[in-house]
Amino acid sequence: MLGISSQQLFQQLLVGLINGSFYALLSLGLAVIFGMLNIVNFAHGALYMVGAFCAYFLLNELGLNYWFALILSPLIVGAFGALLEQLLLKRLAGLDPLYSLLLTFGLALVIEGLFQNFFGSSGLPYAIPKELGGGRNLGFMFLPNYRAWVIVFSAVICFSTWFLIEKTRLGAYLRAATENPTLVRAFGVNVPRMITLTYAFGIGLAALAGVLAAPIYQVRPGMGADIISVVFAVVVIGGMGSILGSIVTGFALGVIEGLTKVFYPEASNTVVFVIMAIVLLIRPAGLFGRTA
Amino acid sequence: MKTMRLSAVIASLLLTTAAFADDKIVKIGELDDQSGLYADQGGPGSVLSVNMAVEDSGLRDKGWTIEVISADHQNKPDIAVGVARQWFDVDKVDAIVGVQNSGVALAVAGVAKEKNGVLLVSGAASSDLTGKACTPNTIHWAYDTYALANGTGKAIVKQGGDSWFFLTADYAFGHALQRDTSAVVEANGGKVVGSANIPLNTPDFSSFLLQAQSSQAKVIGLANSGGDTTNSIKQAHEFGITAGGQRLAALLTFISNVHALGLEVAQGLTFTETFYWDLNDGTRAFAKRFSERMKSHAMPTMVQAGDYSSTLDYLKTLEVMGGNPHDGAKVVARMKELPTDDPLFGKGMIRIDGRKIHPAYLFEVKKPSESKYPWDYYKLLATIPADEAFRPLSQSECPLVKK
After folding, report:
1. Per-position b or e across A80-111, b if 16+ CB within 10 A of its CB
2. Of B40, B208, B227, the CB nearest to A265
3. ipTM value of the model?
4. pTM of the full predicted structure?
5. Which of A12, A19, A125 is closest, CB to CB, to B204?
6. pLDDT tens digits for range B185-209
7. What is the CA radius of gyration of chain B?
8. Whole-angstrom Cα distance, residue B210 to residue A11?
9. Among candidates A173, A164, A125, which has minimal Cα distance to A243?
């Protein structure tokens, strides 16, 4: 069919799902931050990179392996995110989202520049944890266990986050606080703290994606910049504030990109943006978005 | 009155000719990828190499004024051309050194010819720089795609790797490397079963590696460099490609790639280079001085060694000429007349097409158990003599070569 075998097709679909997991996890963090806080967080890619570096340092300086890094790195980078929010982003509350875009973009450049300065551009090695090494032969391809773990773990995190925000009381408070902070405050809920924690949570998701990426993509200062454009495109296509939209779109676009790599690899970098342009023309609010 | 006017005219004529006389002022620009995927192979290390060459030439002590500046072309030919034009036109730069990225180098070569400057390329790989795109102003120094193809390609085909699938960086360099390696493979009885053109700076190669695996080619040729090479090798490892019996030919590998991968993953890789820091006393002495001054304490790569060697030879030639005529083609012609000898590349010469000739070496990456000290990564498999390493003049498409 279409010049490639069904075996190859399944291979590429699976690989696309793996890449889609990263897109989904990262765009989820972005969607949470934008949907809840109205901040266009351009520093997301840089903090994803910091999460990966954090995992590297936890292993090489403190001897803490991957499993510790999965928990500690998001906490550490999330705390740093909370600090950023308290010191810098809070001052832009209520203003046009363009200001937060500029500030976070500047932050991204500073963070990436610092890491580039100290660590060069080639990157640092981070091994796949032994428990997830090797792979299994699925018949149509050899699937590394680690990549299977990435899909499963991302799906679990994405679903849990969606559940937390849409179906729990805490999530309800969060959603209410962004719609009408004054009224929610009147009910005795500490709104500023919720906002800081939400930002930290979004950043924590980015750092978690970074830890997941460390063993398979080189830990490089440029790794955030590589992926952030695609992630933003995903969020725009899915609908800027929609949690479910970003998850579904993330996985779907990973698959579409994967198929493009088979049929016309030269376009694999640009297909996501072409789709974004088409979606913006037809449905400006995104596939799952609500018009503002 | 008339004599005063006459003497004024004569004086101004003398002044104008004085401006065109040779002087002892040299300005060198290092144009490179200072921050992207190729920065560790050249980049800031190359700027250091150029400065070291200027210091080692001893010309400053002899009254010469030599200035070194640098810029980041970000792997974009349009930015590089803009910088090169400004350097030649406004900033009075005489020679541009470095220039990683073949697309950029080809574009800058055109500017250097137009402005009659000097271009000393050690970073870019495309053999077209001394082939159909050769100019009287360009010298291609450290290595090129023909040398890589001839060294690595021939060795692997002779060892039984007779079917190839290429993963090619989708721009001038990748295409040149694929073309030159395919020619060697086919000339030695092998065949190319397929290829995939991959955009530069792709983080994930899994899809392409799976295509290569499906093709069942015995060898997967990586016609890419820098971060792309590191990623492809790491991911090939992960997908069990090497364990499944297919061999990886990392056609352009630098010591910076091996360092980033770690010996556990990189061991056994075979490739061609024209410089290794631990090859002999000359290279070791340079490497020690270089790494002491590098912030990362990294060892010099073939590109950084080439930038040192080419800058030093350029300055030595100017000294022989007695001054800087600020005429690029003239200096390059003189460089082609003088034989070269430096501690990094040994004895060699520069051919009429601008190709610097020196020996090439086939290296294999050591196993972790074989490595005894930091950066002890390569073992020497074979030496390819200078007259065999590069494309023979008889096959050259360069218009400067008279047939």
Report:
1. bbbebbeeebeebeeeeeebbeebbbebbeeb
2. B208
3. 0.77
4. 0.80
5. A19
6. 999 999 999 999 998 888 888 889 9
7. 22
8. 7
9. A164
Domain range for A63 is: 10-282
Q: What CATH number did the domain enclosing A256 receive?
A: 1.10.3470
Q: Check B298 against A120: CB less than 8 A apart.
A: yes
* Residues of chain A contacting residue B215, judged by C-beta atoms under 8 Å apart: none
Q: For residue A290, tell me if it sits in a domain.
A: no
- The two structure tokens encoding residue A65: 């392996």
C-beta separation of A261 from A268 below 8 A: yes
Of B203, B210, B238, the CB nearest to A226: B203
Chain B residue with minimal CA distance to A126?
A: B261
HSE of A197, CA atoms in CB hemisphere, 13 A: 10
**Domains present along chain B, CATH in parentheses:** 24-143+279-353 (3.40.50.2300), 146-273+360-384 (3.40.50.2300)
Whether residue B204 and residue A217 make contact (CB cut-off 8 A), yes or no, is yes
| Residue B183 burial (C-beta neighbours within 10 Å; 0-12, 13-18, 19+) | middle
Block residue for tokens 């090494």 = A133
Cβ pair B229, B102 in contact under 8 A = no
> What are the distances in angstroms from CA B56 to CA B46, B52, B381?
15, 6, 32
Q: Answer whether residue A288 is part of any domain.
A: no
B145, pLDDT greater than 50? yes
Contacts 24+ apart (CB under 8 A), A85-88: A85/A195, A85/A196, A85/A199, A85/A200, A86/A196
Q: Which residues pair with B67 in a beta bridge?
A: B27
Structurally, chain A folds into a number of domains equal to: 1
pLDDT of A178 > 70? The answer is yes
Which residues are B340's β-sheet partners? B348
